[in-house]
Design brief:
The protein is mainly alpha-helical and 448 residues long. 69% of the residues lie in helices and 4% in strands. The chain contains 17 helices and 5 strands.
Length: 448
């Protein structure tokens, strides 16, 4: 890989564009307006056409102003249609950008049909040509796109820092923001203006495809990793910068593995961003797919283990002498989660196994008593407050018993005036002070 100064400027341009888009993209994701960038990218066409018809020029500044105004109008029309037309915001976006896009096509056909207004540069960008178009300002010669995107990024950062609290409130609770004196509508329109400016500023360099990706993907990936507002903003910008750097490196290296020279940097940046999001989607600590599967498995295993302990305890209650508890009596459904639960209980010494029979250990009996106590207290509590038949109490208690804490137990005991038996006449186990104080339930006077 031969790295030159041109590659450096391409990466810098990609980083500035990606981070600028990612920063304002957080507000779109939090407001559930993720497709606004896509709407703006389609709706800039009439802005380009009108700018040319008025100025008879295809200059970058003229095109930028026309596209920016069109982007702002898209945001305004979307909000008005959603508010006054009583339609979903996604439907309002669809109506707005398709109508504006159609108007743009008509204007081009009628007034600029023979002029090269290539919408392809807006769709795909030309980031590889960025270093060739330079501007000298204050004796400093830099690519024009770097000046523009750097200015936009600075504006976005200052906007976010100055209005940090207001943005957070209006994103999560516009009604509360309004009651506190913050005009949520004004904040919305200002934010959408920045989104439009950021989107249009990036079109010529990286194209709308990358802009749409950078508006949504880094913010979505960061949201999977954290629920903290400030940390989400910072992480999304890091995701965007990493995507830009790795995207350009991949664009000039990966195709050579397949016998090609290179590929589109903007497209590869979007691909890398998608891959990073996919990894986050699977491996995020709390909201990742694998994490959710693992937590559900742990919850299912805990419930199955507690059900086994409760079953063993109830069998001990109903036995007049030291019981011999067969596997078939305790585990009638030989499911894989039940086998895992039995293995885990044996490993943690909550049950013991001899041949094909199981017994509770002292530690297991302590946990089983807690579970049965929760079950019977809940049945008693529900029977007191709801007019239900006694035979309708068990199912509710069987689901709830796994989530009742000792504090909740104590609250129910006080509410129930220290009741001793449940509606079925079964004794509610006492709360032992420690696991060492556990005795066999038959010695506590348990009833069948």
């Amino acid at each position: 890989m031969d790295w030159t100064s041109l590659d450096t400027w391409i990466v810098i341009t990609g980083v500035l564009s990606a981070m600028s888009c990612a920063l304002v993209g957080n507000f779109l994701v939090l407001r559930k307006m993720s497709m606004m960038g896509d709407a703006i990218s389609h709706a800039v066409l009439p802005g380009l056409a009108i700018a040319f018809l008025i100025s008879s020029s295809r200059g970058s500044i003229t095109m930028f102003i026309g596209a920016a105004i069109a982007g702002l109008i898209t945001a305004l029309f979307t909000q008005w249609i959603h508010k006054f037309g009583k339609v979903e915001e996604s439907a309002a976006m669809g109506v707005t950008f398709t109508a504006l896009f159609a108007i743009g096509l008509i204007l081009i056909v009628r007034g600029a049909d023979k002029v090269d207004l290539d919408p392809g540069c807006v769709l795909y960008g030309a980031i590889e040509l960025v270093p060739l178009d330079t501007i000298t300002f204050l004796s400093l010669t830099l690519p024009r796109a770097v000046w523009i995107l750097g200015s936009v990024m600075l504006i976005n950062i200052l906007f976010t820092l100055v209005l940090y609290k207001e943005l957070r409130l209006t994103c999560f609770d516009p009604a509360l923001a309004t009651t506190l004196g913050i005009n949520a509508n004004v904040m919305h329109y200002v934010t959408m203006t920045l989104v439009a400016i950021t989107t249009v500023a990036s079109f010529e360099s990286v194209g709308s495809i990358l802009v749409i990706a950078m508006l949504i993907v880094p913010a979505s990936a960061a949201h999977l990793l954290t629920n903290r507002y400030g940390l989400m903003l910072a992480m999304s910008m890091i995701f965007a910068a990493v995507s830009a750097v790795l995207g350009h490196i991949s664009a000039i290296t990966v195709p050579t593995w397949l016998g090609f020279a290179d590929t589109s940097t903007a497209g590869m940046i979007a691909v890398v961003a998608g891959l990073l999001f996919t990894c986050t989607m699977f491996f995020a600590p709390h909201q990742g797919i694998l994490s959710k599967v693992w937590h559900r498995l742990r919850l299912s295993l805990r419930i199955a283990s507690e059900d086994i302990l409760g079953k063993l305890y109830r069998l001990e209650e109903s036995t007049s002498d030291q019981p011999t508890l067969a596997q078939s009596a305790v585990f009638p459904a030989n499911k894989w989660i039940s086998r895992l639960a039995r293995a885990d209980l044996a490993r943690t010494r909550k049950i013991t196994r001899e041949n094909n029979t199981y017994r509770l250990t002292e530690q297991g009996r302590f946990l089983a008593m807690q579970l049965v106590r929760s079950h019977r207290l809940w049945e008693t509590y529900v029977a007191k407050h709801f007019d239900l038949e006694v035979d309708h109490l068990h199912d509710s208690a069987e689901r709830t018993e796994h989530y009742i804490t000792q504090t909740m137990q104590q609250d129910m005991i006080e509410e129930l005036s220290h009741v001793k038996t449940d509606p079925h006449g079964k004794k509610i186990p006492d709360q032992p002070s420690s696991e060492d104080s556990i005795v066999d339930p038959k010695q506590k006077g348990g009833q069948a």
